[in-house]
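re: that chain from earlier
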Amino acid sequence: MSTNRDASNRRRSRGLTLSIGIALGIGALITAFPFLWMIATSLKPQRESIDFPPTILPQEPTLEWYQALFTELDFGRYFLNTIIVVAIGFIGLLLMAMAGYAFAKFDFRGRRWMFFLVLATMMIPVQVTMIPTYLILNGMKLTNTLVGIALPTLVSGFSIFLFRQFMTTIPTEMLEAARLDGAGEFRTFWQIVLPMSRPILAVQVVLTFISGWNSFLWPLIIASDQKLYTLSVGLALLNQQLAVNPSLQMAAASVMVIPILIVFIVFQRYVIQGFALSGLK
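^ sequence. v structure.
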């Protein structure tokens, strides 16, 4: 009797697992379909992209629209500008890591109030600070520059919070042992704290990359010269100028999306681990 019951439970468990797998597969397909449609359309000739009824896969695949983006249009310049903005943003990773380390492992006067102010910046919408930020950068002669585009996003209160949450898990005894061995604070931070913080660094790399790569409103406001536009601004400009060529538009959108997916796939394991160890569920 017990054997039959166990066999029935196993069959029910396998059936439930199979049902869940099928449901997840269907959900994943529905979620990924717009992305697959974007890639497929970017490879279609123009006449195929406007056919009705539409076809999912291209009948005559071509890369001419990707070539047109970088030869006939200024997407090569937009791509380089975006890379520079993201690279400047990565400098802020070291600054935010230092701030998170100080809040996590140092006891100094006013630490709680300073950390409260850092958290308070997360409650202020970005749109509220755009005009003051613009006036400050204008006074510093940094408007219409790539540095001016990247500077406001160099440091983030949320990122400092993540670093602080993760670095509280680093054993204080290990840091004290390094100091007893004669290591200075910078050496301790560089050779012990940062290597142990790889998961949260991976999270911040992905978040910083996405923030800089997708930046649209601020570059549009601060850059009056079209040569300083980023990819997102260039994509919006392209959509306004060319409304009858879906293949070209989808190729430009693919150039925007594919690098983000590559970065996430590379750092995916560390991202999940970093969020888990930071106490975020």
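Residues 2-42 form the longest helix (41 residues).
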